[in-house]
Design a protein that fits this description.
Chain A: Belongs to the ABC transporter superfamily. Ycf16 family. Chain A: Keywords: ATP-binding, Nucleotide-binding. The complex is a heterodimer. Chain A is of the alpha/beta class. Chain A has one domain: 3-Layer(aba) Sandwich (Rossmann fold). Chain A contains nine helices and twelve strands. In chain A, a hairpin with a 2-residue loop joins strand 4 and strand 5. Chain A is globular, with a radius of gyration of 18 Å. Chain B is globular and about 60 Å long. The longest helix of chain B has 17 residues. Chain B has one domain. Chain B is an alpha/beta fold. The chains are: A alpha/beta, B alpha/beta. Chains A and B meet through helix 2, strand 7, helix 3 and strand 8 of A and helix 10 and helix 11 of B.
Chain lengths: ~250, ~475
C-alpha cells in the first residue's frame, strides 16, 4: 500500500457553480505541501471537499487516502482513516468542554470494546499543552466558545496533537494570528512532523512557511494547480504577488 | 412482567414500557364520583376533616371548566380513568416486605441500588399508594421526618394540618382540585431548624395499570436555616390508552433555609402529566426547582416560587424534550410579594420529530416589592423542520423599583457544528447528541452526578436516529 494522499482530477461545485476544475496532487506521508493562490480560487473548497463537507458536490475525480477512495465516506470515517482538517473558522460548541470532547474524539478512534485510559489521555494532554504553551485550565473551557481567533487556532492544533492524524489539512491557520501565536502553532505542527505525517498547508503568506517549511508548494488558480515547485516558489509569490500566476491560468 | 405490544407503536425507544399483571387490594370503579372519594377516605381511615376537604374539592373540580389556555387536553377522558388503585401489601420499611413483583419493578428501575449508594432516604409509590418508605437512621436521629403523606398525617397531625393545602389550595386550578379530592400517596418531609441533609432524598413514582390515575400529594417543610434536596422520578408502562398523573407538591421554605426539588419525569408517552408544584419562601430562604420533562404525552407544569418575605430567592431550571406526539408545556412562576426578593428562570427545550415544547412563565412583582428582580432566559433547540416551539412569557410588574429581564433564543443544530465534530471522528448521531448535551449542560451540572448521567442517557436514547 502506498502511504499517500492522492487527489486525482478533482472537480467540485457549490450548487451549480463549479469551483474545483480538475485538481491533481500527490502528497506522500512525510511531506507537507503548501497550497497558495489568490482568494476565491478553490483552496478552502479543496480542504472542505477532502474532509467531506456536504455543502460541496464532487462531480468528478477521486481522493485516495493510502489507496482508498474516501469520497463516498462520511466525514467521521475519513477522520478515523487519519485525515484532520484544522478549520479556518472553528465553530463554537457551547456546553461541551474541550477535555470531554478530546476524550470522545480519541475514543472514536478506538476499536469496539477498547477504552481510552486515563493515563493515555492525561499523558498526551500534558505533553500537547506543554508544546502549545497552554495552561491545563484551558481544557475546562467550552469548545471554542468565547475564544479569541488565536485561541481557536491553537485549539485546532491541540486537537491535532491529541488525535495524531496521518494527513493534516491546515486551512489558513495563520490568518488572524500574531507573531507569538504563529510561532506556537507552528511549533505544534512541527512537533508532529516525521515520516508518518503528510498534508496540505493552505495559506496566503510566506510568513507561516518561514516556520513550517514545506516540501513543495502548489499554486491554485481558478480551480486548478497552475504551478508547482519548491519552497522558493512561495518566496517568489511573496515578492512578486499573484499577477504572473493569474497569467499562467489564462495561458 | 410483560412487554406491552402496543408500546412499540407509541414510543419505540421507551425502555420502561413493561408492566406487571394486575393484582390489587382495592381498585375503585372507573370515573370520579362522591363514592370513589369516600372509598379512598375510608381505605385510609382518615379524620373527618379530610373527608370534608376532599368532598369540597370534588365540588370545586366539577365546577371548574377544563383550562383551554395551554396544551390540548381534549384527548383526556376523565370518565375512563381509575382514580384509586391500592396495591397489595403495605407501606414497608424494608424492601423484603414489598410484594415480589412490585419489588422487582423497583429493582429494575435501580431504586434500591441508588438508595444504598447515594441517598438519605427513599420512597416508592406504585399506583395509588407508597409501597416503600425509609430514611437512613442517621437522619432520623437528627429529627428529619421522611414518611408517606398518609403516615405524616397520622403521626404529625398538627403539623400536617397547619400546612396542608395552604400553599396550593383546591381552588387554585382544576387539577389541584382533582388532586385534593382523590389524593393518595406522596411524601411528607420535615427538616428541623438548622439541620442540613447533604445527600438527596428520593421518591419514585410508578404507574402500572392501564387507564390509571396517580394523584400523589407531597408536603415538605424546611425549617429555619435547614437544607435539603429532594428528587422525584417517574415512569409508567406504555399503553395505547391514556393515563393521568396529577400531583400537588407544596413546599414551605422558612427563613434562611435552602431547598432544592429536582424532577426527572420520564412517563411513557401515553400519560397526561398535569402537576401543580409551588413553594412558599420566607426571609432570605432559597428555593430551587430543577425540572426535567422528558416523558409524557402532555405535560403542563410550572413550578412556582412565592417569595413572601424580604430577601427570599427562587430559581427554576427547566429542561424539556418533546418528540413525536408530545407536547411539553412547561415553565415557571416567580411571584414577588416582598422587597428585595430575587428570581431566576432558565428554561431549555429540545423539540424533534413534530414534537412541541412551550415555555410558559409568569413573573409577577407586586407593589411594594421594592428592589426585586427576576431574570428569565429561555432557549429552544429545534432538531428538525417539523419540530415546534413557542414562548409565552407573562410579566406583570406593579412596582416601579423592580426589574425583569427576559431573553429568548431559538436555534437549530447547525450543519457546521455537526461537520466539525464529525471531522474529529464522531458519528453524526454522536455529534448531535453531544451538541444537545452541551445545550442542557447549564442545567445538568446542577444535578447530582448520577442524575445528570441519567438525564444525558435518556436524552441520547430519544436522540437515536433523529438526525439525518
Amino acid at each position: 500500500m502506498t502511504h499517500q494522499l492522492e487527489i486525482k482530477n478533482l472537480h467540485a461545485s457549490v450548487g451549480d457553480q463549479p469551483i474545483l476544475k480538475g485538481i491533481n496532487l500527490t502528497i506522500p506521508r512525510g511531506e507537507l505541501h503548501a497550497v497558495m493562490g489568490p482568494n476565491g480560487n478553490g483552496k478552502s473548497t479543496l480542504a472542505k471537499v477532502i474532509v467531506g463537507d456536504p455543502e460541496y458536490t464532487v462531480t468528478e475525480g477521486e481522493v485516495l487516502v493510502d489507496g482508498q477512495n474516501i469520497l463516498e465516506m462520511e466525514p467521521d470515517e475519513r477522520a478515523r482513516l487519519g485525515v484532520f482538517l484544522a478549520f479556518q473558522y472553528p465553530v463554537e460548541i457551547p456546553g461541551v468542554t474541550i477535555a470531554n470532547f478530546l476524550r470522545l474524539a480519541m475514543q472514536a478512534r478506538k476499536e469496539e470494546g477498547e477504552e481510552v485510559t486515563f493515563t493515555e489521555f492525561y499523558g498526551k494532554l500534558q505533553s500537547a499543552l506543554k508544546t502549545l504553551e497552554w495552561d491545563e485550565s484551558i481544557v475546562e473551557r467550552y469548545l471554542n466558545e468565547g475564544m479569541s481567533g488565536g485561541e481557536k487556532k491553537r485549539n485546532e492544533i491541540l486537537q491535532m496533537l491529541m488525535l495524531e492524524p496521518n494527513y493534516i489539512i491546515m486551512d489558513e491557520t495563520d490568518s488572524g494570528l500574531d507573531v507569538d501565536a504563529l510561532r506556537i502553532v507552528s511549533h505544534g505542527v512541527n512537533s508532529l512532523r516525521g515520516p508518518n505525517l503528510g498534508g496540505l498547508i493552505i495559506t496566503h503568506y510566506q510568513r507561516l512557511l518561514d516556520y513550517i517549511v514545506p516540501d513543495k508548494v502548489h499554486i491554485i488558480v481558478d480551480g486548478r494547480v497552475v504551478e508547482s515547485g519548491g519552497p522558493e516558489l512561495a518566496k517568489r509569490l511573496d515578492a512578486e504577488g499573484y499577477d504572473w500566476v493569474k497569467e499562467l491560468a489564462t495561458a | 412482567m410483560t412487554v406491552n405490544p402496543e408500546a412499540a407503536s407509541i414510543n419505540t425507544e421507551y425502555e420502561y414500557g413493561w408492566s406487571n399483571p394486575e393484582r390489587y387490594a382495592i381498585k375503585a370503579p372507573k370515573g370520579l364520583s362522591r363514592e370513589v372519594v369516600e372509598m379512598i377516605s375510608k381505605a385510609k381511615d382518615e379524620p373527618q376533616w379530610m373527608l370534608d376537604f376532599r368532598l369540597k374539592a370534588l365540588d370545586i373540580f366539577l365546577s371548574k371548566p377544563m383550562p383551554e389556555w395551554g396544551a390540548d387536553l381534549s384527548g383526556l377522558n376523565l370518565d375512563e380513568i381509575y382514580y384509586y388503585i391500592k396495591p397489595e401489601g403495605f407501606n414497608a420499611r424494608s424492601w423484603d416486605d414489598v410484594p415480589e413483583d412490585v419489588k422487582q419493578t423497583f429493582e429494575r428501575l435501580g431504586i434500591p441500588e441508588a438508595e444504598r449508594a447515594a441517598l438519605a432516604g427513599v420512597g416508592a409509590q406504585y399506583e395509588s399508594e407508597m409501597v416503600y418508605h425509609n430514611l437512613k437512621e442517621e437522619w432520623e436521629k437528627l429529627g428529619v421526618v421522611f414518611l408517606s403523606i398518609e403516615d405524616g398525617m397520622r403521626e404529625y397531625p398538627e403539623l400536617f394540618r397547619e400546612y396542608f393545602a395552604t400553599v396550593v389550595p383546591p381552588e387554585d386550578n382544576k387539577f389541584a382540585a382533582v388532586n385534593s379530592a382523590v389524593w393518595s400517596g406522596g411524601s411528607f418531609v420535615y427538616v428541623p431548624k438548622g439541620v442540613k441533609v447533604d445527600i438527596p432524598l428520593q421518591t419514585y413514582f410508578r404507574i402500572n395499570a392501564e387507564n390509571s390515575g396517580q394523584f400523589e400529594r407531597t408536603l415538605i417543610i424546611i425549617e429555619e436555616g435547614a437544607q435539603a434536596h429532594y428528587i422525584e422520578g417517574c415512569t409508567a408502562p406504555a399503553y395505547s390508552s391514556d393515563s393521568f398523573h396529577s400531583g400537588v407538591i407544596e413546599i414551605i421554605v422558612k427563613e434562611g433555609a435552602r431547598f432544592r426539588y429536582s424532577t426527572i419525569q420520564n412517563w411513557s408517552h401515553n400519560v397526561y402529566n398535569l402537576v401543580t408544584q409551588r413553594a412558599a419562601v420566607y426571609g432570605n430562604g432559597v428555593m430551587e426547582w430543577v425540572d426535567g420533562n422528558l416523558g409524557s404525552k402532555v405535560t403542563m407544569k410550572y413550578p412556582a416560587c412565592y417569595l413572601l418575605e424580604e430577601g427570599a430567592r427562587g430559581e427554576v431550571l427547566s429542561i424539556a424534550m418533546a418528540s413525536r406526539g408530545q407536547h411539553q408545556d412547561a415553565g415557571a412562576k416567580i411571584v414577588h410579594f416582598a422587597p428585595h426578593t430575587s428570581g431566576n428562570i432558565v428554561s431549555k427545550s429540545i423539540s424533534k420529530d413534530a414534537g412541541r415544547s412551550s415555555y410558559r412563565g409568569l413573573v409577577k412583582i407586586y407593589e411594594g416589592a421594592r428592589g426585586s428582580k427576576t431574570n428569565v432566559e429561555c432557549d429552544a433547540l429545534l432538531l428538525d423542520e417539523e419540530a415546534r416551539t413557542d414562548t409565552y412569557p407573562y410579566i406583570e410588574i406593579e412596582e416601579r423599583d423592580a426589574s425583569v429581564g427576559h431573553e429568548a433564543t431559538v436555534s437549530k443544530i447547525n450543519d457546521e457544528q455537526i461537520l466539525y465534530l464529525q471531522s474529529r471522528g464522531l458519528s453524526e448521531d454522536e455529534a448531535a447528541g453531544l451538541i444537545v448535551r452541551g445545550f442542557i449542560e447549564p442545567i445538568a451540572k446542577e444535578l447530582p452526578l448520577e442524575y445528570a448521567v441519567e438525564l444525558n442517557r435518556l436524552i441520547e436514547l430519544e436522540m437515536e436516529g433523529s438526525v439525518g
